[in-house]
Each structure stands twice: as structure tokens, then as C-alpha cells.
Amino acid sequence: MSGIVHHLVSRGYEEAHDRFKGQPQPISPWKVASLFVTVIVYMLAMFAIEYTYGYIVATLAMVETPMVTAFKLDAPQADDIDPFVSSDDKKPILSATVPESFVVKTKPITAKIRTTMKHLRTQAGPWARFRGLHIYMIYHFLFFGIYACLQHVFRLVYIPRAAAAVTTHAIMCQWGLLWTHVVISAPSTQSWYKRIPTFATVKPVVFPTVIFAGVEQLVILVSRDLLNAFGLHRFLRHPELINDLSSANQQKALAQISFIGLISAIAGFLVLFPACIALTRVYASALPEQDESIVPFDRTFGGRAKPRTEGGDGIVSMLDAWRTFDWAARVRLIKLYAKVFAMEFATTLFFGLLFLGQLRIISGPKMGRKITVPQ
To answer: What does the alpha-carbon distance between residue 39 and residue 45 come to, in Å, rounded to a whole number?
Structure first.
């Protein structure tokens, strides 16, 4: 979606340049500034949607365990007499006909975005939609810095680039663990830097992090190899080269790119989606005992994680983390991602139309060329 706006910005510059080419008066700086303001506001809106709903709400949906309440009824005694029958036919009531207990499963808080946000505001205040943002920014700043250094070093010794990404994930798993704990826990009086997990807490989650990073790189490599096999890798580095192709070849290239995108999406859904959920639940299992979760959360994962109070480390395995995430929760998470995609699509459509309107005002009646947006 950001590629659409990038394309519109480029075409807007071309339109404005052609409109005023050869004329003495330049384009008003305020008009040009309005275009950049629109793009910046769009990027901020997209980030807010992605972070709040695609990260925070999704993380809570991955770890929430719906509350189950059991009610026990007192069974009638064998000598209880039914008062509604005659004295001649009176006989004891059979207690087997009355259930002794029943279970009520409450609706998950993350079943709806509205109820989730209301719960977050009630528990953590109006800025709960951006909780953990400072850790998120620090994490990505350090991640890309370490990755850039490792990538350069690994290239010198002919180690694949994917190994640099996996190593960086392993190094930064402490910060990923911290962000997860801040997001899923109730507000704490401790400062965030005092909640940084110790090495003893981080050690059991390093291997699951490496597995997730390896799966992620595998999906990326499959997509990259398909692009190379179809000879489309050059269009990623230089998108303008596609304009040099004939109309038939352009349609063929776009069809091939769409096919590769579909294959990558299927691979991501079948492999990366479960790995992401499992890793998040593994991180959640390492939540300190003194921290209360902000949503209902079964720390034992159905008895598969041995609590620290019983001599265990409290960390669930990735396989058990995925198995305990039932189908109802998986469907609920998929629906959430569909809603996030719909919000991002609507936001892109709105700002795209707004941007085109601004181009019309700036370029005037000579904005007659057809603007085509790549699919």
C-alpha cells in the first residue's frame, strides 16, 4: 500500500514539473509542502493502525485464555419428596436427573477490537494503544544497527546474509521478551529498564527465537529464489525498468509478480503465522510471577509448562504453545488481521484520493494525463 502512495508522489512531481515547465513562476512552496504533509500524516496513520491493532491487540489475542467458571449444584437428597404429586404416588426424586455442575466459558476480551481497546483504556489509561512504543523503537534501532554490522562482517567470510538476520534475532531476543512482557502485563510501578529480563530468563527462549528467525528467512529465501527464477529481481532494485518492456511483457511480469506474492503469502500463512504465534506465547510464558497479565492468561498452558514454584522454568515449548492455541483463537486472530488489513486499505484509499485532489489543485486543468497505479 505504501508503494501506491510512493507512486502517486512520484507522478505528482512529474505532473507539477510538466505543468510549470518553461514558465517563469515556480510552484508555490506551500502547495508542495501540503503534499509532503499529506504523505507524512498518511505514514503516521498507517503506523498507528499497524502498531495498535497489528501488534498490541494481536499480541493480546495470541496470549489470552478465555476464563472458564465452574458452578457446582447441590444434588437433592435421596429422601427428598416431590411436593407436586399425591401422597399415594410420592417417591424419592432421582438425583441422577439433576446435573451436579456445569461450566461457563466467558467471551474473550480480544473477540472484538472495540472491547479490547475499552479494556486497555480502563486498565492502562488513554495512551494504552501505544504501550511499549519506546521499547519497540529502541529494539528496531538496535536491531538494524547490529544487523548492518553483522551483514558486513559475514559477507567478508562468505556467510549467507540470512545467518546475519538469525544471529541478530538471537541477540535481540531479550528486548523482544521485554516488549512482550510490557504489552501483556498490567501497568507496573517499575521503570522499563528495571524490567529487562535477566540472562537466566532469556536463555530458554533463545532457541525458539532462532527457530522463528530461521523460518522467517526460509520464507524470504523462497520468495527471492522465485523472483530470480523468473528474472524479476532487477525490477525490485530498479522499478522504472518495467516501463521499457512492451505492454504484453509488462502484463506478463505483473502476473508473475502476483503469482510469487500469492505463493509467499500462502507460505507465510502456513509456516510463519504459526511460528509467530508460538514464539509470542513462549515469550509470554516467561512473564515474571509478580507481574499480572492485563488479559486472562493461563501460565501453565493447560499443564504443559511446569511452574517455577514446582521446580520448573515455567517456559512452554513452541510445539505446546501452538497446540494450546485452539482453533477458536486462531480464527479470532485471523479475523483481527483481516480487520487490520481493511483499515489500512481504507486509509490508503482515503489519502490516495486526497493526494490526487491536491495534485489537481496544483497542476490545474492541464493535469490530463492518465495516472495508472500498479496493482
So the answer is: 10
Which helix (H) or strand (E) segment holds residue 53: the answer is none
Helix, strand, coil content of the chain in percent (nearest 5): 70, 5, 25
Q: Phi and psi for 25 in degrees, rounded to 5?
A: -80, 130
Residue 165: all three cell numbers together: 538476520
Handedness of CA 275, 276, 281, 284 (dihedral sign): positive
DSSP labels, 196-239: PPPHHHHHHHHHHHHHHHHHHHHHHHHHHHHHHHTT-HHHHH-G
pLDDT score for 57 = 97
In 25-151, at which residue ranges do the beta strands (DSSP E only) sit? 68-72, 101-105
Closest CA to 34 of 348, 355, 367: 355
Grid coordinates given for 273:
503465522
Longest dimension (CA), the chain: 113
pLDDT in tens, 267-284: 888 999 999 999 999 999
Q: Measured between alpha carbons, how far is 110 from 325 in angstroms, rounded to an integer?
A: 14
Residue 281: the pLDDT is 96
234's grid cell: 532487477
